[in-house]
Amino acid sequence: MAQARTGTGLWISWPPFTKVPLDAPAEDIGALVLSALDKTTYDVPAPNFRTDPMPITPVLALAGVKTWGAFVKGTELVGAELDDGRLSLVPMVNRGSRRGFDHPDAEQIVRAAEFDPATIGQLLKDLFGAPVRPGGSSTS
């Protein structure tokens, strides 16, 4: 999934929404990550949370659940961030349905030295199942 930033600065989930098994070839996973990053969008209208579908709804559907609480339970999340041409893979801390996901210790962020899909995919695969330590930005 890509992300979009609204004019008010809120980041929301954004198409394309894809699902790939973790046992897929690393090159395929890395290519999807690079494609999603390429589709990052800025200055989209903020959704009306009273009338519009929730931006996370397509992700819930792909996961086969109907609620955020069901989605978060047992979920591992690794974010991909592209900043000034540097790619970082960020294994997020799962803090439950009320608090969502949070950044880890800075040492746990993996920076990819190259934009090779197979390398990125393998780095991502290696992060799943690894323990994640909470960063200092949130209270426990």
From TrEMBL:
Family annotation (InterPro entries): Cdil-like_sf
Stored Gene3D superfamilies: NMB0488-like
Recorded superkingdom: Bacteria
SUPFAM superfamilies in the record: NMB0488-like (SSF160207)
UniProt-recorded name of the protein: Uncharacterized protein
